[in-house]
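hey so u asked for the seq, here:
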Amino acid sequence: MDQFSKSNEPDLLSRADSKSLEDLSQELQVQQEKLLDLKRQQEEIERRKRELEELNKKRQELNIGQKSMKERLTRAIAILENAEYDARKEIEQIQLTRQTFADHLAAIELIDPNKWPAETIDDQLTRSLSQIDHARAVYTQARVRIDALSGKDIEDDTNSESDEDSEENAEAYGVSFGELVKRGFALSLPLIITLLIFAFIIAKK
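ran it, structure tokens below
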């Protein structure tokens, strides 16, 4: 009996050891699977962390960009509103000046000395000259703005017409331009002669 027991003891130990190895192997496999799960969880957590960091970065960029553009656009709108207001006022002034010029032009064009009665010619001349002076004052006051709008001195275009205007004005009062030249020379002749005599005397000395 004792011999039988002794002969079976190695088999029992062998089975026990084999079972223990299987258990250890299974436990190891379970632990490895848990470790893989933990690793996958860690990777998922890190991926989620990166996503949250990226979302937070975009949110910060959005807040900064939103604030910056709100300030810029608000300031730009204010500047444009002021410019629009100034432009409207400028347009109103231009329209008012243009209408004023048109009214003065219409009044000047109505001046016709040939149609004036002889008994009222003095009053008509005084009134017409007053209209011309008033138109000239308005024109002079607005000339700087007109030059700025046209980009040049508008008087440059009228200088070449000054002689023609003089001739037209002379004819409007019933006197030819040539007649005015003759009268001017006749009035200046005594002064010219006096200057020539004075120059001759100085030369003789």
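Residues 174-205 form one domain. The two ends are 182 Å apart (CA to CA).
lmk if thats what u needed
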